[in-house]
């Protein structure tokens, strides 16, 4: 990124409304070069405002009010942008300046206003005995994920989670042996989709992986599933960590160490993914038909039979009937009334001209659930877009795979809940304009029995 220095370490980008907050050990001025007693330069927070897709403004430092801290690390910001969770040294000020002191990392919460963080308070599970760091708050503010080497983990540092219950954080819960390993797991990031991204230095499963790599997992039936490594070019033989992404996953940022320093990189996805696609609406060709005068006939105590002819070859008897047509079309519905005492028949006592219409929409035909590893078929044959010269049917299966065509097959490799999007585009009209619409359908992928 243009705001990432070639001389200093820039890490842990976080997307907020107008730009990026990141951590950097750059000097704020030529005279400022504060280090720890181990001669490690300390991180501070910076913000770079976005001008357009590729241009960014010069970063400025975000100040922290109160007692000077030794370290300011990865952050997370609430959905409304007012509350910030950040990593810092547990001991600060004079207490932190004693030589040979063991200073651990903790999480702190403050109010973010412009270029300043105020009203700072510690996370209740900070400790001088172990590190608590790298916070990530969920979009609804209900769950806080973080990294820690507290007792009870799988080894190294693990990903933990707390739930906000009536304004108080629950006891930290380790995400378990599927997510965590004897290696180090750090930099959790909970995406609004429910995916949990994190970084780990466990042994990679592909030749392009090495050092730290980015993984993601999802919650399935109350359990975190086996983590999946991100593909190239997100992961590489270098250290790749501190991943974040936009809500629609069309772009994102992460950190890579390719030499002596860490830099922030941006990625963009070629996969088309819409922020909002209306769910497929099911066509309902069923109607209720009522003979209002049936009550009058009943009060006269004269037995009548009501015979409905629906104009599609089907008939039914009764003063109140429900009939489902097989498809759209124009139908003439007729009602015959038979006097059971005289056997007189009043033909076509009532006649209705009924137009049964199909909903104008792209349409997804496919299962609501399947098993992992099972081939399923999706088709768009029932798409009804009158006046469209359809150019392309584009499928996004919700697992970073796509297909193009009217009828496609898909095999989901992992269990979970997925949202399938069908994006339909027209050929350009005489003015070069292209129409586009999309619909969505949810599918539940179950584990093999």
Q: Which key phrases capture this entry?
A:
6-stranded mixed beta sheet, elongated, 8-stranded mixed beta sheet, 449 residues, Immunoglobulin-like, mainly beta, 1 helix, 47% strand, Tachylectin-2, Chain A
Short description, anyone?
Helix content is 1%, strand content 47%. With 449 residues, it is mainly beta.
What does this structure look like?
The chain is elongated. Strand 28 and strand 29 (345-356) form a beta hairpin. The chain has one helix spanning 294-299, and strands spanning 10-16, 19-24, 44-49, 60-64, 72-77, 83-89, 105-113, 116-122, 132-137, 143-148, 158-165, 168-169, 173-174, 185-190, 196-200, 213-217, 219-220, 223-224, 228-229, 239-245, 251-257, 262-268, 278-279, 286-290, 304-309, 315-317, 320-324, 329-339, 345-356, 369-371, 375-379, 390-396, 402-404, 407-411, 416-426, 436-446. With 449 residues, it is an all-beta fold. The longest helix has 6 residues, at 294-299. It is 1% helix and 47% strand.
